[in-house]
User: What shape does this take?
Amino acid sequence: MSEKIKRFPGEELKGADIRVGKVPTIRFRPRVRYLWSAGVAMSRFIEGLKEGKIVASTCEKCGRIMVPPRAFCEECFKPVDGYTPVKDTGTINTWSVSYVAGDASRIKEPILVAVIDMDGASTGMGLLHLLGEIDDWKQIKFGMRVKAVWKPPEERTGNITDIRYFKPVKEV
Amino acid sequence: MREVAIVGVGSTGFRAVTPDVSYKEMMFEAATRAYQDAGNISPRKDIDAFISVAEDYWEGFSIFDEFVPDQLGAVLRHLFTVCGDSIIGLSTAYMLIKTGHFDVVALESHGKPSDILTLYDVVQFAMDPMLNRPLGGHPFFVAGLEMTRFLYETGNTKEQCAMVVSKNRGNALANPYAAYGADIDVDDVLCSNHQFYPLNQLDVSQPSDGGIVMILASNEVAAELSDNPVWVKGVGWAVETPSLETRCWSDAVYARIAADMAYKKAGIGNPSREVDFAEVDDLFSYKELQHIEALRLCRPGEAGLLVEEGETWIGGSMPVNTSGGNLGMGWALEASGMQRLLETVLQLRGEAGSRQLSDVDVGVAQSWRGVPTTTGAVAVLTNY
Amino acid sequence: MVGKKRVAVIGAGMTLFRRNLKETGKELAWHASKMALDQAGLELNDMQSVVMGTAPDAFDGVHMKGEYLADGAGAWRKPYSRVFVGGGTGVFAIDAGWWHVASGQFDTCLVVAEEKMSSCYPHPAYAFTTIFDPIYSRPLGVTLIWIFALEMHRYMHRHGIKKEEIALVSVKNKRNALDHPCAQLGANITVEDVLNSEIMCWPVQRLDISPTSDGAAALVLASEDVAKKLTDNPVWIDGTGWCIDTTFWTNRDLYYPRYVQCAAQMAYKMAGIKNPPKEIDVAEVYDPFDYKELHHMEGLMLARKGQAPKLTADGVTQRDGDLPINPSGGLLGVGNPIAAAGLMKCCEIFWQLRGEAGKRQVKGDPRTGLAQAWGDLMQYGSVVIMRS
Assistant: This one.
């Protein structure tokens, strides 16, 4: 019936008019704060980062070594059998170059991001992280080998950013 | 005629804080228990649809449903989220099975309010941004407004409300799932701090963490999964209005509409005679009385007399909130309604331990989404 | 379908889609609902139930925004519920409306989808910063476009697909949108325009992306008995499907949306569809980014893996092609008020199957249509199959 409908409702406003207050608005910033319990699996992960390790969890039923770690195997639907560190090296699965920040504003120095398949974890078990020590982003390649660059131990806080970024490595 | 049964339940129980587990791990435990209870089914192949009941700001995420599938065994399965009350979730599972396309449906809800540092600011964030929010104040003043009008119009009293608190906190002592069992008398309630007049501190439920999962099945497969299925005979749910300016302040209109819908489906004409017991929302003490009246379990204005005369206590003619209600089990956000369902199922199965009622066949569970909403749901359950 | 109830769509409505609309979310929901009811020849009192589809609360800036929107959606004193599956919500809302009626619980259901993204100020993108895990993702500063760029890049890499091939989707959809009276970004652009637009997050460029929008859409659903009394040409909902994949998106090979395939299989099975490319006459495929249309055509099994770009280049997906995709103009052209955009796709299939799409009408006499949406951390698929 869209052809029978003569007029579709809605009155367009200009963003500029909103910004200069030509349009009545109400401004409100919510006070919403959270302190999540990290839980069993993620506590291991956080503790591992402080020690310069990337902790994975293992399931003996399907044989997977999973990163990020989890308390239960989602495929087998059972508790995992243990936790083990994987290597801090890996292979670029996919990558991107970001020129925009979280608020959609543009940034001068682009952020290099990648999903990195971690060595020692099961095939395709990737971690999202940043890339660094790359002069020109056109040098990034699928399948490129990378290694974590850690903050010094005294600066680590148990955060994913205890790894500053991953840098390219030449294979021996 | 296709019928719907609850064939498995699982819960973590409820506690004031749960710093030892993440919300995912909490959900995993409840799900594991429910699957085991439902004839040890596998979520990886035996469940046709999964429903999670959740709200973004209760969790601290936008698009929280992203974080749900793994711990329910629902990866690459047919899962979705209902942003509503958990008895609306039950109604959704009921409808899915009634279509004839689904035989087994899992329903999940949880609350982890201890993860929220600014819980009451989040509640306030639910209020109308132009008309109400700028007025400020703790959002529970809405409940105070309603209690004032409810008591004024019905003649129920503050003392009777205090009796509800005493009863429910006492019932909770016999419920291992409850977070707030306590031996409290009417004077304790009446002498507790004024909070949102006429509500005193002990008239208000306290937050609790916990998760519940239930498995529903069609009559065609229910017998394979459970020796004691509990039948969902009718469901109903409704919203009155979000507006504080136009809502009815004395009567729980939403609960009345929902109950009438559920009773009609269940073929119940005279609820006060045909219903054996009820679990109703009591996030605030007066809400239990208001909801009992909306559910037509007594005549208008007489809910207070029921509690005063012992009829709604364990051993009375119409026991209400044997679980301890929300006052006893805690306010577990959207899982609050599912607590009511859980107790109804346990009573109908004869698994309610020391608070077990004798000879009960028909139970009603009712929920409300809390301040500032006028949304609620009702389910009529039987064990035959 | 023996012993199972059939559900019809008998009315559709929508508002303009714009970056900023004056109307509040409630008012937008009301406009769309009113139009859908008028088109069906019904009044609000005839609606026995209401379903709301709307995406994150963070857009409208109201916690439990389903409750807040209830009166705008016509739910006053009615059974009302909100479903939410991220970007998949719009198409999922019609699936939810379907079970309200198919269950026999109700004879009618009003399905409403609303999004007021502009309330999230100064930019709706803020809402997306809280969609990620707070431990292993948020501290990195991850944004929504990052993760889609990572998916697009993987898809291109696995099949050797070029940016030029993908840009054709943006060109097609923005051109189609010129004929849509509600469209925000209808335009005649070229592949070069897309390739020369500013880089957002390589390989995603400005013209690869749909805009942020305000808007609403609504549908009226009815049981077979009610529908046949009201209209000679109801459109039937014959298949619904949905599926979610693991939260751990970095553990999946992003080149293929297996969750969309799973959702499609559910819907095809319900509708008795064995050969999708042959049996589907017109499809509204979720296209918040140009590559997603191709990716989803493959997930929906409308094209073989890696073959969707060829179909596009060959003109098969144009309005006058053999398998028209997004004749409305899609999200790239009409706009992307998340849940409302998904339901807009369902409105379009409704209009196409009734032959009422005007200048947008696809050739021939389409009998079977599909709408699909996608959401969450590249993990949700929702699908509906409709027949005239």
Residues 4-117+207-225 of chain B form a domain with the Peroxisomal Thiolase; Chain A, domain 1 fold (CATH 3.40.47.10). Chain B touches chain A at residues 18-25, 28, 32, 35, 42-44, 57, 60, 69-71, 73, 75, 112, 114-118, 121-122, 125, 129-130, 133-134 (CB under 8 Å). Residues 4 and 95 of chain B are 9 Å apart (CA to CA). Chain B has a mean pLDDT of 97.
